[in-house]
Design brief:
The chain has an 8-stranded mixed beta sheet, sandwiched between helices. The chain has a single domain, classed as 3-Layer(aba) Sandwich (Rossmann fold), CATH 3.40.50. Strand 5, helix 5 and strand 6 form a beta-alpha-beta unit. Helix 2 runs parallel beside helix 12 and helix 7 packs across helix 8. Helices cover about 45% and strands about 15% of the residues. The protein has about 300 residues and is of the alpha/beta class.
């Protein structure tokens, strides 16, 4: 369903839309990562959280899926933005992660949710951190998964992964885009928990068929690169915080999770051996168990 939040249209899935009994249950706000849609959250995770008596709210970030596309901002020059970042300058972005955090808070406002457990993956973890900084009174707990503080000096992606991210599909057809995405997800995936080819291809195909808008992903990438001041602010976070990170993450290395946990007062770090930058079934089950325990400590 579409809702109006922070002045734009946001596509939302909400447990309470299908079952009104969820309206008065504790809410969990799930924020997905770069270029990915709300359907990228494993269905098992959503269903298990609901079975635990939690109202699950997912949404498409701006510029992805069925939410507002920021077309007036144009196509960013990613190479120029990357060069600026490497030289120590902050690239100009069409919007910021703080804007995206305001979208997330706007979703809660539109749904009449006063407080929520906020869970973010990758870029979504960065947005979740921004939510906890901007509206601490709205955050029951914070969970940052396979994400980063954005601090200078942290290790970056494996060169092979970087090459895969900067490459382009061999054509503009949906089949070419799917093949390219399968290769990228293989490059960043969990070496100890490889997702079967058919399942991975089905996940990617569902996203491509639902909404394909690669230029929005480029604008999100610039928003991530331009978010330069967040690391210094993380010690201000007061929400009980869980940081989950795979030890084999080739895109956002494990050191980034360690750094995030170190900066947030009282944060708990959960390493998952052999997990990369994806959500295969076994790591997802471990994350679910950790989330339930984390939420119960706040309840």
């Amino acid at each position: 369903m579409k809702i109006r939040a922070n002045g734009i249209d946001i596509e939302v899935e909400d447990s309470a839309r299908y079952d009104l009994s969820f309206t008065h249950k504790p809410a969990v706000l799930l924020i997905m990562g770069l270029g990915l849609q709300l359907i990228a959250w494993p269905q098992e995770l959503v269903e298990e959280l609901e079975a635990a008596g939690l109202r699950v709210i997912r949404f498409d970030n701006r510029d992805v899926g069925l939410s507002t596309r920021m077309e007036a901002a144009g196509k960013p020059n990613l190479m120029w933005a990357s060069l600026q970042y490497k030289l120590g300058f902050t690239p100009a972005a069409p919007y910021s992660l703080s804007d995206m955090a305001a979208d997330a808070i706007g979703v809660l406002d539109a749904l009449g949710v006063a407080q929520a457990h906020v869970v973010g993956v990758s870029m979504g973890g960065m947005i979740a951190q921004r939510v906890a900084l901007a509206a601490p009174q709205r955050v029951l707990s914070l969970t940052s998964i396979m994400s980063s503080s954005g601090a200078k000096g942290l290790p970056g992606p494996d060169p092979q992964v970087l090459r895969a991210m900067m490459s382009r599909p061999q054509g503009s057809s949906k089949a070419a885009v799917i093949d390219h995405s399968v290769g990228l997800f293989r490059a960043i995936g969990s070496p100890a928990f490889p997702i079967p080819e058919a399942e991975l291809r089905a996940r990617i195909t569902a996203g491509v068929e639902r909404a394909l808008y690669p230029v929005g992903t480029l604008r999100q990438m610039v928003a991530v690169v331009s978010d330069s001041g967040r690391a210094a602010l993380l010690p201000r976070i007061t929400a009980p915080t869980l940081v989950v990170h795979g030890t084999a993450d080739p895109l956002v290395p494990f050191a980034c999770g360690q750094d995030t946990a170190r900066r947030i007062p009282g944060a708990t770090l959960l390493p998952i051996e052999g997990m990369g930058h994806d959500l295969p079934p076994e790591p997802t089950r471990r994350i679910l168990a950790a989330l339930r325990s984390h939420f119960e400590r706040k309840s």
